[in-house]
């Protein structure tokens, strides 16, 4: 039986860690990721392979933070072994998965996928037809997560009936969704991030997200780009999650911030030429450690000062929910550069009062 590229990729993804241990043996596991230098199995920490499917993405997907390259495990097999083409990579993948060898078949003409399935244009269209989040369940869900003042600068919108397709074999559903615009350094929309919401209420398990398998999905061109809050001048705070950065904006509403949407994308985020100081709002896990190391190296090579911001719990939204805004403000006072305490922290408190 013949298995096409998508079937092989799914089979490899189910065995992601075994694939990495075999073809990227010079790397090591760090939390939910496999870290190695590059697709050629060079020792290092620049390339991240996701080992388990999560709301942040599919298992087997990888990004090289040093080059911006990305792909799946079929690409890893081809590049690590120096194979010539897809056919050889597919045969090696079948050997690894112990699948039958493919029967010779005539070459088929490539079929173009419709641009509307996940293009930048589709992302721009979805954001354009969405509405302000004020007064919607999107605003209510953020407020229930402790984000009382949502300083999003127009980057968030709401769609009451956003399409959600569980998989190729199930019908499309509609759920209300928070829509976040992803932009490049020039402010052009390159994608959107959708968080589908439960219209029937908020609970502490799903935190307001819809009862679907993957309530968070992105579309468009994400690599190097981010959901941005405020316009970058010389200082920027960057982290993974939207709620993480909005939590910091509760305390530092005038500091420009960016949510890269995943650990891989944070490590590969493009940095503005005028940036002089970068705060990395890291998550407290192994992936956060790895991202901090990679992004710090990239920023320092560009002459940018790097300062980590560390939460007491898993991330800054957890800190905000558990300890409250005053404790979060006090903790940040000891992590910011003194001039930024005056510039962003004290000034925002005076304005709030």
UniProtKB/TrEMBL annotation:
Residues 118-229 form the DUF7146 domain. Residues 236-324 form the Toprim domain. This is Toprim domain-containing protein. It comes from Bradyrhizobium sp. LLZ17. It comes from the Bacteria.
């Amino acid at each position: 039986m013949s298995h096409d590229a998508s079937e092989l990729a799914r089979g490899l993804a189910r065995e992601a860690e075994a694939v990495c241990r075999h073809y990227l043996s010079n790397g090591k596991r760090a939390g939910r990721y496999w870290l190695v230098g590059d697709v050629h199995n060079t020792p290092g920490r620049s390339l991240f392979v996701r080992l388990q499917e999560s709301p942040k993405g599919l298992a087997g997907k990888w990004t090289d933070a040093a080059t911006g390259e990305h792909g799946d495990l079929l690409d890893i097999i081809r590049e690590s072994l120096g194979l010539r083409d897809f056919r050889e990579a597919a045969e090696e993948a079948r050997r690894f998965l112990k699948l039958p060898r493919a029967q010779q078949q005539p070459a088929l003409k490539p079929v173009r996928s419709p641009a509307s399935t996940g293009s930048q244009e589709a992302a721009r269209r979805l954001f354009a037809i969405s509405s302000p989040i004020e007064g919607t369940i999107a605003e209510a869900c953020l407020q229930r997560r402790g984000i009382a003042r949502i300083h999003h600068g127009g980057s968030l919108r709401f769609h009451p009936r956003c399409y959600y397709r569980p998989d190729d074999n199930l019908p499309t559903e509609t759920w209300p969704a928070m829509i976040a615009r992803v932009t490049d350094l020039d402010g052009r929309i390159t994608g959107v991030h959708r968080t589908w919401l439960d219209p029937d209420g908020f609970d502490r398990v799903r935190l307001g997200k819809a009862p679907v398998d993957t309530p968070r999905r992105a579309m468009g061109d994400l690599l190097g780009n981010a959901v941005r809050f405020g316009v970058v001048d010389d200082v920027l705070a960057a982290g993974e999650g939207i709620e993480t950065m909005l939590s910091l904006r509760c305390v530092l509403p005038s500091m420009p911030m960016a949510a890269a949407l995943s650990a891989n994308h944070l490590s590969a985020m493009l940095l503005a030429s005028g940036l002089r100081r970068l705060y990395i709002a890291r998550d407290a896990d192994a992936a956060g450690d790895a991202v901090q190391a990679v992004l710090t190296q990239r920023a320092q090579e560009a002459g940018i000062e790097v300062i980590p911001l560390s939460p007491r719990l898993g991330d800054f939204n957890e800190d905000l929910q558990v300890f409250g805004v005053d404790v979060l403000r006090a903790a940040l006072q000891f992590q910011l550069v003194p001039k930024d305490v005056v510039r962003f922290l004290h000034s925002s408190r005076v304005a709030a009062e």
